[in-house]
Specification:
The structure is a homodimer of 316-residue chains. Chain A is α/β, with parallel strands linked by helices and 316 residues long. Chain A contains 10 helices and 13 strands.
Chain lengths: 316, 316
């Protein structure tokens, strides 16, 4: 059995796991990122975390994979402008780690790492080409073409969250308008539901969250929908319509028809997936229609660690 | 000097040219497609046309390139469901021609051939990666990544005309809504201007077309705009806003930031290109902004023949 280290570098915590080639996490630890300490501090924390993990589990590893926010140059291991990281422009994360551990280090954008995770360990095993979509605070994407990541000109490809579905739509944090993230990103979604509740005071959601915005989560919306709350159901279906429209645009452009959808908001489950599939099929070009497929991601909470470790197994 | 035959297969006529490797058309002829006669008749007409051309110009050729509508399998030379062709499902166009002339035959979708034409002979020579956009009756597209055509899973990629910019927008012929083609396709555009003229009876366009819909062409709109007609200018600028929004979506997804724009509607020239560039820059993700570039296609009326011949020079 082969093993690899997967590092899921987040703005708050670094999740590090030792993963076997069949996709099981043997052991994992979390350390604080201390992003405010600057790049050297962050890299030092990764090193210490990996050392700690390796000291606890004495197994030979093939390499280290790192998934992180921002634009990544995977050839050079350079991470550029990750949001919420202090004093960080272009930083080589790969080299100091490969020198420290004398192992191959693979660095990728976190959405791309999630795509490789599904490709190697998850529902992507069955597909030649697919688009991985992660519905979380943001909407991330990774494009797999013929079992390889599609990087584009400068490794910034896959930003499906910033496909516009209404060029006069609501403002997105990126500066544009009507991006799919401005509808499906969890904070935008919560805000929209909160505003909508004024028109639907008798919605079950109001009861479940005790009229407290902080309690308004995708999970509560799902709970209300499962109990038949019409407003909650309409929110989920409408989200599917919007995602379906975006997916149709993407497929018409790149001729990839399978979507693997994960992240917290994908927890809406069947009503969301049915709505996406219906809109997607009805909008995509006729020649692509028979191939349209939308499936749930298989890797759930541990997608970050597993995806990062999959970067190693994908290359070795 | 090397030479190739370029065949631009249209629904009404077949344009055939003998082209030199420096992109000059030595001789060209047009023959009727007779698409209503079915695939065998069409292929027979191509053969006869090529024979006629070769009998008039006795030069050795490297091969034959064919650009045609529909979904094309370039490996097999198969053309699938070209619109306006009778009794045509999946037809191998490449094989009968390579057997007849004992030459290599390269078949591509016409929008992809236009992209290769710009790559080999036109403004694409300068760019590693770009998206070719043809603004005609329809809006076609071809994606060049690292100097190669991007085909997608089943060679249907590049349909930039069917990127939605408003999922509740006007109905597009493809069955979807708010596709960029439903704004920029010349017939949609003419119809929109015609409707708009009711609110702008004093627009110069009305005078130029003598209130006759049949005279309403992109050229007349440009003529009015050049003379300072505000309604005509607003139409062109608005079109640029819409195209810019679509290009931003495309770039965010595939990380290619150069667009080469051709076709009749691109004849609007500078006011259109400036408007596209402005909107595109303002909407694309910050990391891509410095690389945004929109340029006019270099191959004009003969783009079809030259693009088709470029398929040969690109491979040999």
């Amino acid at each position: 059995m082969k093993y690899a280290i997967g590092v899921d570098l987040g703005g708050t915590s670094i999740k590090i796991g030792l993963v076997s080639e069949d996709g099981k996490i043997v052991k994992k630890i979390f350390v604080d990122t201390e992003a405010s300490g600057g790049p050297r501090k962050v890299i030092c924390n990764i090193k210490n975390g990996v050392h700690q993990l390796l000291s606890e589990i004495n197994l030979p590893i093939q390499g280290i994979g790192i998934g992180c926010p921002g634009v990544v140059n995977p050839q050079k291991g350079i991470v550029e402008n990750p949001p919420n990281f202090y004093n960080w422009k272009k930083v080589n994360v790969g080299r100091p780690l490969s020198m420290e551990f004398e192992k191959d280090v693979f660095v990728e954008n976190d959405a791309n790492a999630a795509a490789i995770g599904e490709l190697i360990f998850g529902n992507g095993k069955k597909y030649h080409s697919f688009v991985m979509v992660t519905l979380g605070t943001g909407v991330g994407g990774g494009i797999i073409i013929k079992r390889k990541l599609y990087h584009g000109d400068f490794s910034a490809a896959g930003e499906i969250g910033h496909i516009t579905i209404d060029h006069n739509g609501p403002k997105c944090n990126c500066g544009s308008f009507g991006c799919i993230e401005a509808y499906a990103g969890s904070n935008y979604l919560r805000k929209r539901v909160w505003d909508g509740l004024k028109q639907h005071p008798r919605s079950l959601i109001n009861k479940l969250i005790e009229k407290n915005y902080d309690h308004l989560t995708p999970r509560k919306i799902k709970e209300a929908a499962d109990k038949g709350d019409k407003f909650a159901i309409s929110i989920i279906e409408d989200l599917g319509v919007k995602l379906g429209a975006a997916f149709a645009s993407v497929s018409n452009l790149i001729d990839v028809s399978t979507y693997i959808v994960g992240g917290g908001v994908a927890g809406f489950g069947k009503p969301l997936f049915n709505s996406i599939q219906k809109t997607f099929s009805s909008r995509v070009l006729k020649s692509l229609q028979p191939r349209v497929k939308v499936v749930a991601a298989q890797l759930k909470n541990e997608a970050g660690i597993k995806g990062a470790s999959a970067l190693v197994f994908n290359e070795t």
